[in-house]
């Protein structure tokens, strides 16, 4: 059984079928990419996996529990698309706050905040106000916030949308480092280039349905 499981997940909004009978299984330690055009249903699927949206039918599971079980949230980090922070906090303070929310004690929270700042390349910026961060720095801070609780599974929604090529490369390197540390990463993207360089497996979603799933090299080779 995968650490992330979508079992016949369907979500209907009014007459709009956002996701239709989606089945996916992601093994622990993999980087999994979900590719699809805008409106395909990617965010809805991720929200069901995160337990933020109730499926119309089917079940979402993470780390052996239903996504609707609050305990599953401890296992999960999440970087939403275009996440923005309040400017009146320092980067380090924001991460300490997130670490405390994730259940860490004060000393551990300070230590982890410094670790993840270093990991995302913001070690020298932790004492600056977030108001003075560039968009790319904010996105990396968001990644640090998703990682600060040391989750087993990390969901990243378009994690490089605000980044220049150098920033993209840095995020790629971070993802590969996390993989070496045994983390499972679920990457939502509309950019093939972003997905192809890091993902072990991908699913392609269109109009709410998974139209292909497997290793990207196999998918690109065609039937
Ligand atoms: P993606 O993330 O791939 O852009 P979404 O999951 O956001 O796709 O959307 C899939 C479809 O579901 C779209 O047609 C969108 O308009 C619709 N949708 C998403 N969320 C809602 C909502 N809260 N209410 C109504 N329709 C929604
Ligand atoms: P490298 O050899 O390139 O440093 P490793 O295989 O040692 O990579 O990966 C572990 C590194 O990743 C450590 O520096 C560790 O602090 C960092 N790391 C792993 N998982 C996380 C996580 N969830 N949050 C923050 N840092 C992490």
From TrEMBL:
Keywords, sorted A to Z: ATP-binding, Nucleotide-binding, Transport
MF annotations from Gene Ontology: ATP binding; ATP hydrolysis activity
Q: ABC transporter domain: from which residue to which, for each copy? A: 4-223
Determine the domain of life of the protein's source.
Bacteria
Entry keyword annotation includes Ribonucleoprotein: no
Question: Which family would the database say this protein is a member of?
Answer: Belongs to the ABC transporter superfamily.
Please identify the protein, giving its name as recorded.
Answer: ATP-binding cassette domain-containing protein
Species name = Desulfofundulus thermobenzoicus
């Amino acid at each position: 059984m995968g650490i992330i499981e979508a079992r016949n997940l369907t979500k209907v909004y009014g007459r709009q079928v956002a996701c239709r009978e989606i089945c996916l299984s992601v093994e622990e330690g993999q980087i999994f990419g979900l590719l699809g055009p805008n409106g395909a249903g990617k965010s809805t699927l991720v929200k069901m996996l995160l337990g933020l949206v109730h499926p119309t039918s089917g079940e979402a599971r993470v780390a052996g529990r239903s996504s609707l079980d609050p305990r599953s949230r401890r296992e999960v980090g999440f970087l939403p698309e275009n996440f923005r922070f309040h400017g009146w906090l320092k980067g380090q303070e924001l991460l300490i706050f997130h670490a405390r929310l994730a259940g860490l004690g004060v000393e551990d929270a300070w230590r982890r905040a410094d670790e993840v700042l270093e990991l995302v390349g913001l070690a020298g910026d932790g004492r600056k106000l977030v108001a003075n961060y560039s968009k790319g720095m904010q996105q990396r801070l968001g990644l640090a916030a998703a990682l600060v609780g040391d989750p087993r599974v990390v969901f990243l929604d378009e994690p490089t949308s605000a980044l220049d090529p150098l920033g993209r490369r840095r995020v790629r390197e971070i993802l590969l480092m996390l993989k070496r540390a045994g983390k499972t990463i679920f990457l939502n993207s509309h950019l093939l280039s972003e997905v192809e360089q890091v993902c072990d497996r991908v699913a392609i979603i269109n109009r709410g349905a998974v139209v292909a799933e497997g290793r990207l090299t196999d998918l690109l080779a065609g039937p």
